[in-house]
From TrEMBL:
Domain RNase H type-1: 3-52
InterPro entries (alphabetical): RNase_H-like_dom_plant (IPR044730), RNaseH-like_sf (IPR012337), RNaseH_domain (IPR002156), RNaseH_sf (IPR036397)
A single MF term (Gene Ontology): RNA-DNA hybrid ribonuclease activity
Origin species: Solanum pinnatisectum
CDD domains the UniProt entry points to: RNase_H_like
Name this protein carries in UniProt: RNase H type-1 domain-containing protein
Pfam families for this protein: RVT_3
Length: 79
């Protein structure tokens, strides 16, 4: 939740994260993205990906068990 607050400008950003958070803030503004907090139970995609501890460049690279929840999240509304 603290990261969401940093991105929204509600919380102070630690010096070592300023560049990264400012980059995220710019991308959020450019793409008109809404940032909100979701509990783990409401975000199965992020939870499943966190267990893999890997970076993926595209949807095609996602593990099989993540693809279903990912596409459901992609085509649904909020948490």
């Amino acid at each position: 939740m603290i990261i969401v607050q940093m991105i929204k400008g509600i919380s102070n950003i630690p010096w070592n994260l300023i560049t990264m958070i400012e980059d995220i803030q710019q991308r959020v503004r450019e793409r008109e993205i809404q940032v909100s907090h979701c509990y783990r139970e409401g975000n199965t995609v992020a939870d499943a990906l966190a267990k893999h501890e890997i970076y993926f460049d595209s949807e095609d690279q996602l593990p099989r068990e993540v693809k279903g929840p990912f596409f459901m999240d992609k085509h649904s509304a909020e948490c």
